[in-house]
Amino acid sequence: MEDWEVIVIGGGAAGLMAASRAAQRGRRTLLLEKKRRPGTKILMSGGSRCNLTHALDVRGFVETFGTQGPFLHSALAALGPEQLVDLIEAEGVATKVEPTGKVFPVSDRADDVLAALLTRLRQSGCVLASDEPVQSISPYSASLRVVTSKQTLRAESVILTTGGQSYPSSGSTGDGFRWAAELGHTIVPLRPALVPITSHAPWVLGLQGITMSDVCVRVLEPSDEAARPVCLAQQRGSLLFAHFGVTGPAVLDVSRAVSGHAQPRRLVLRCDLLPDRKVDALDAEFQEECRGAGRRLALGLVARYVPQRLAETVAARADFDPERRAAEVSRNERQQLVTWLKQFDIPISGTLGFNKAEVTAGGVALDEIDSHTMESRLVPGLFFAGEILDIDGPIGGYNFQAAFSTGWLAGESA
Fold first, then answer.
1. pLDDT tens, 176-189?
2. d(CA 93, CA 304)
3. Domains and CATH numbers, the chain
4. Environment class of residue 279 by beta-carbon count within 10 Å: exposed (0-12), middle (13-18) or buried (19+)?
5. What is the three-class DSSP state of 311?
6. Could you tell me what percentage of the chain is helix, strand and coil, using 3-state DSSP and rounding each to the nearest 5?
7. Burial per residue of 21-34, b for 16 or more beta-carbon CB atoms within 10 angstroms, e otherwise
8. What number is the average pLDDT over the span 111-117?
9. How confident is the model at residue 225 (pLDDT cuts 50, 70, 90)?
10. Taking a C-beta distance cutoff of 8 angstroms, is the pair 286, 301 a contact?
11. Which of 1, 175, 320, 404 could form a disulfide with 315 if both were Cys (CB 3.0 to 4.6 A apart)?
12. pLDDT digit string (tens) for 367-394?
């Protein structure tokens, strides 16, 4: 049985950071990766561009993560967004901040970010064992025993950075949750997050390929007790109609409300296609245009606000005659068109699941982890970092930053 001071299991963002930091401290460290090479999910992220963080300060990050945010205080204090950017740039990878606040490498190549992390790993003295899946973890005397497909190991500290269940092809198949549960930890129910939303409505699928750059979306649930439906989640951003339903940043950010619902088919995705326009102002504007349009078709006026195919769908959902002349549009017809432009309701059937989810919501319960060290409160010497924790944030580099920060803190503490 070979002895190590620190064994890190999982070579993603959190694992690479944890392993290099532990080894930099002089700890004899082994990184175990089940795939042939580490960092598969890093290469896939941001459309292979790697949105590694967001240009917010620590307070902004904490607030963005909502109720989970306070848990990240110590991790972000140890390695915040600015420190992460400095670390990557120190390896020769220049970064840039896009108008949305997202931070990418100037090269737009995730390969460059992974290469920087692997360079740090090699220089730290950490030993990397690829293509070596772990089979079990168990207490052993005053240490922990790790059994792999090739050998049995013992370590003073084990850092679990096995990720969630999203994109299982990257190696995140949920093994870490099983081991954590076997060691006594509570696993908050898992569900896909940042995942496209599906619809069974043929008219929705017929809009495939249309993109709206600025839409406000809300996930609504009908209420038996209230006249108005309950809003489960809301976000503003771009939306893309696809062959399965809808995707895009705004949709991904509200998707956890769908994947976490017991009856997703009860839900509706309400889209405000013109969020900068108030209903009354839009109605008045449309009325004025109808008066001056003469014998032109009213549908052409709708198409000034949204793409033609979407305008035709709006008219169809509003039971509006597409051959109607603008000057002939009644007050009720006009208001119906305005209503559908502001409340474009898409029936929901579910999501594309873990196979297409960027993040896993749920995971190891945070109250069982010491947020100052990332060490288990239940098993001495066991640490957690990254997506295995019950932490998930919106799209935009937040989840990578959480992984890097918690990984750094675990490596600093183990």
1. 999 999 999 999 99
2. 43
3. 2-193+357-413 (3.50.50.60), 196-352 (no CATH)
4. middle
5. helix
6. 40, 25, 35
7. bbbbeebbbbbbbb
8. 97
9. low
10. yes
11. 320
12. 999 999 999 999 999 999 999 999 999 9
